């Protein structure tokens, strides 16, 4: 993010459990909760684009078909 970009601040209500998950993920990636949410949005954009192109989005074993398909409504 450059200094010329405007930053929007959000107020987000989460359950204590979801906040704990967010903190755990942030710790695992060595980032902040904001970093986790930015990366989650990027993944959603990829999943939605794939769906719009008639593709599947999911998790696969190396050189194997999808082990888990992530369905986006």
From the structure above, extract its key features:
73 residues, mainly alpha, 47% helix, DNA-binding protein
Would you kindly provide a written description of the structure presented here, covering whatever features stand out?
The chain has a domain at 29-56. It starts with 15 loop residues before the first helix and ends with a strand. It has helices at 16-29, 33-52; strands at 58-60, 66-69. It is extended, with a radius of gyration of 16 Å. The mean pLDDT is 88. The longest helix is centred in the middle third of the chain and has 20 residues, at 33-52. It is mostly helical and 73 residues long. Strand 1 (58-60) and strand 2 form a beta hairpin. It has a two-stranded antiparallel sheet. This is DNA-binding protein. Keywords: DNA-binding. GO terms for molecular function: DNA binding. One of its GO terms (biological process) is regulation of DNA-templated transcription. It comes from Scytonema millei VB511283.
Residue windows where pLDDT falls under 50 for at least 5 positions = none
Q: Please give the share of residues in helix.
A: 40-55%
* Beginning-to-end CA distance, first to last residue: 30 Å
Report the radius of gyration as a whole number of Å: 16 Å
The amount of beta strand, in percent, is 5-15%
Largest sheet: 2 strands, antiparallel
GO molecular function, one term: DNA binding
Keywords: DNA-binding
Protein name: DNA-binding protein
InterPro entries: Ribbon_hlx_hlx
